[in-house]
Amino acid sequence: MCKPQSELSSLFKTFELDAECGDSSDPIPILSATKWILSILPIVYIYTDANEFMVEFNHTFAELVGLSIVETPQPLIVALREFPPLVSLFEKTLSEKIEYRSLLVHFERKDKLMHVLVDAHMVKRDQLVYGWVFACREIDNLMMIEAQVLRHDKLATAGKMAAGIAHEIRNPLTSIRGFLQVLERDLTAVGLQKEQVYIQLMLSEIDRVNQLVNQMLLLAKPADLILEIVTPRDVIESIASIVQSDALLRNVTCRFALETTSLVCVDRNHLKQVILNLVSNALDAMEDSGAGTLVIAAYDDVSNHNVHIDVSDTGPGIPSYMIDRIFDAFFTMKEHGTGLGLAICQRLVTEFGGEIRVFSKGFGTTFSIILPSVKE
């Protein structure tokens, strides 16, 4: 067999040639392929020698710390000086010779909080340490998925509660409403106009409670969908007059930018409900400003085979610390809101196979409904 090379890189287990010396016409070291794969993976890869100098690192690491991939090797701690949490971790690793897998570390990069899982592996042979291999993987998407799972769990819990108590609430409300209507008729017969006003107020409050129960029931069970293939443009145009009249009453300018030509598979009425709910929230957000602009846009995302329906306002925006909570059931920023509107919108869009995203940075907010496009 061929004698192993003396270079530090030959210590990798992947660097093994099965061919006898002279028997292989064109042997390709597995290590070369491994290094190429590591150079294109979205994983930070660092390889240091026994003196803690970086021997190799990939483009992902270079982008993270702002290094040129061809720079002269330098101490790992120097390269990471702008990221104290990583410096602290690696210093402890190198001094105490600790190996670990999937250790969670948080640090800031360009005013953004990063979440990474770090692996550390010691490269040694015959009890002699030749260096270290570090790998870091960003898990921002994982954190987002966990947040979505938690939100869905909350919706499921709210749904179970609603299913258990909805009928118990509805039955007495129906009886109360019926007796109030009888009382209203009797008061009308004897000319007690003032008392009729009180009856009307009570009936309106009962109707509001009934509406809340209906919304809770919508969370408790899947919606009865009647799916059909439609164009978002047609759906939006069918409610355009309602949106424009509501905007006019609130002194808000309404504009439409409907560029999409793709088809989506949705329940037409439920999609209308989602858009009108987002429009109502947008108009409410601009109510105190005295004027504003509402924009409803629809366009194709051809590369991802999606269609976007955006509802944008020029209101004060949503505080960053609230962004992650606005889709939670019963969370509301309105004085008399129920906190169920956005939760229901998200559930309906999810049942269409899509998602809702929100963008708000200090001024104005955009809710984007993203739906998969389909072919006829």
From TrEMBL:
Q: Show the SUPFAM superfamilies listed in the entry.
A: ATPase domain of HSP90 chaperone/DNA topoisomerase II/histidine kinase (SSF55874), Homodimeric domain of signal transducing histidine kinase (SSF47384)
Pfam families the record matches:
HATPase_c, HisKA
As its record notes, the protein acts as a catalyst of: ATP + protein L-histidine = ADP + protein N-phospho-L-histidine
Question: Sorted alphabetically, which keywords does the UniProt record give?
Answer: ATP-binding, Kinase, Nucleotide-binding, Phosphoprotein, Transferase, Two-component regulatory system
EC number in record: 2.7.13.3
The answer to keyword Transmembrane applying to this record is no
Question: For the Histidine kinase domain, which residue ranges apply?
Answer: 164-375
> Which GO molecular-function terms appear in the entry?
ATP binding; phosphorelay sensor kinase activity
> Known PANTHER family for this protein?
PEROXIDE STRESS-ACTIVATED HISTIDINE KINASE MAK3, SENSOR HISTIDINE KINASE
Can you name this protein? Answer: histidine kinase
